[in-house]
Specification:
The chain is mostly helical. Helices cover 67% and strands 3% of the residues. The chain has 16 helices and 3 strands. A 3-stranded antiparallel sheet has the order 1-2-3, with helices on one face. Helix 5 runs antiparallel to helix 6, helix 6 runs antiparallel to helix 7 and helix 8 packs antiparallel against helix 15.
């Protein structure tokens, strides 16, 4: 019996341990933080049953993915690229609105968020390009590698960025780090960095100028902060909107977040309910936590935070589990990154090594952004906490990432065993 279970949960034990504890924390904290959903649906157990079902589906996806040999990931790259671009284009035109942005496609029984699939697909394609274009003399990647990567990734980043800027920035940052790890020539990396600094400056200028013209968005932003994720759904799809309005309709939101961040008072008690609603209550949750917290299920701020079960779940974790719980969660993501680096270093081929690091960076970077926002160290975004926040596509895709990392760890472990002297065990 134990042998059968061991065969089912194959791969790196450290990754499995992190996965187990993060999903366990997710079940406890989402159940606690879903009080508003329970109240609105008049169903106390409904939200947690749905989330538990999503977690179980994610575990199934993880097990299926880890049993796919890594070499087959290359074969599905063209298929995933086609699906990613097709769905990213589709969601811009026909997608359902969340927080005033078209981000999901409504399918029978569930919603699908194309940006989540696109992130993993871009990492998969980048890993393949970097591995295929490593020079034989071991001096790094061919100079053409960056061009191929940018031609493939930039259009996806732009499509995602029109409706979800933080996800687009996260994706491009991970691709940038992958190119650095893949030893793209430093001269090219320097030129790209300079170009990015210039583009960021121009973009911020456009946000601060064009965003101020979007008065409707300015007026509606407070409602978005204070109510639910659907409060500003009618910002999209207005009759008679021109092309320019559709392209720049998110500029008002981005400007408000920048302005609110720069003008925010140091004392949370002085926060404006209209301008800093979520951040204020996230700070109240953290300030009232102490070292050990109030205990699971005893959060007060969950009733005030519209996205307590998603974007701000880390503040609820701190409120209920205290500083100790926060450190444990952070430590779990650090272990995930270090185990991925260990697996990558044991790979004989470049592709699985780049793939593991890219997927791990996606998960850990997203977690860092979520935790920074929840603790008031960043601008408010819509990034969930991977494997913890309540979600559909995000949870399932994150589980697929873990499965891919575990798949690589299996082959890396075999390769490592073949290179060890007789009688020496591998970790």
């Amino acid at each position: 019996m134990n042998k059968k279970i061991g065969n089912l949960f194959k791969g790196d034990k450290g990754i499995w341990t992190v996965f187990f504890f993060l999903t366990l924390i997710s079940l406890i904290e989402v159940f606690s933080a879903s009080s508003t959903l329970s109240y609105k649906s008049h169903n106390f157990m409904g939200p947690i049953i749905y989330h538990a079902g999503t977690i179980l589906a994610g575990v199934f996806i993880t097990i299926v993915t880890l049993n796919i040999p890594c070499r087959y990931f290359k074969l599905i790259t063209p298929i995933f690229l086609f699906i990613s671009y097709a769905t990213l284009l589709w969601v811009l035109v026909f997608g359902e609105s969340i927080n005033g942005a078209n981000r999901v496609i409504q399918l029978p029984g569930f919603t699908f968020q194309p940006s989540e699939l696109a992130k993993g697909t871009m990492v998969l394609a980048t890993a393949q390009i970097l591995s295929a274009m490593q020079r034989e003399d071991g001096s790094g990647a061919d100079p053409k590698a960056m061009s191929y990567i940018l031609w493939l990734v930039v259009p996806a980043v732009l499509l995602i960025g029109l409706e979800n800027l933080s996800t687009a920035v996260l994706l491009f940052a991970v691709i940038f780090i992958m190119m650095f790890i893949g030893r793209v020539p430093m001269v090219q990396m320097g030129k790209l960095t300079g170009g990015l600094v210039l583009l960021v400056g121009i973009f911020l200028t456009l946000i601060l100028t064009l965003g101020s013209m979007d008065k409707d968005e300015d007026q509606n932003q407070a409602a978005v902060e204070m109510t639910t994720a659907q409060a500003s759904a009618d910002d999209n799809g207005k009759e008679g909107e021109g092309f320019v309005s559709k392209v720049f309709h998110r500029f008002g939101t981005w400007r408000n977040r920048l302005v609110n961040r720069s003008t925010r008072p140091e004392d949370p008690k002085e926060y404006s309910v209209h301008d800093n609603f979520q951040v204020a209550h996230a700070n109240f949750a953290i300030a009232s936590s102490g070292v050990i917290g109030k205990g699971p299920g005893n959060s007060v701020e969950r009733d005030y935070l519209p996205q307590a079960f998603s974007d701000f779940i880390f503040s609820i974790i701190i409120e209920e589990m205290g500083l100790i719980g926060a450190i444990v969660v952070v430590f779990l993501y650090i272990i995930l990154l270090f185990r991925a680096a260990r697996i990558s270093s044991r790979c004989e081929n470049n592709f699985p090594a780049f793939l593991v690091m890219g997927l791990a960076l996606l998960l850990v970077s997203q977690a860092a952004i979520n935790m920074m926002v929840a603790t008031d160290f960043g601008i408010v975004t819509g990034q969930p906490l991977p494997l913890v926040s309540k979600g559909g596509t995000s949870t399932l895709v994150s589980c697929a990432y873990i499965g891919a990392i575990l798949s690589v760890s299996r082959s890396a472990r075999r390769n490592d065993a073949h290179t060890q002297p007789v009688g020496v065990e591998t970790d």
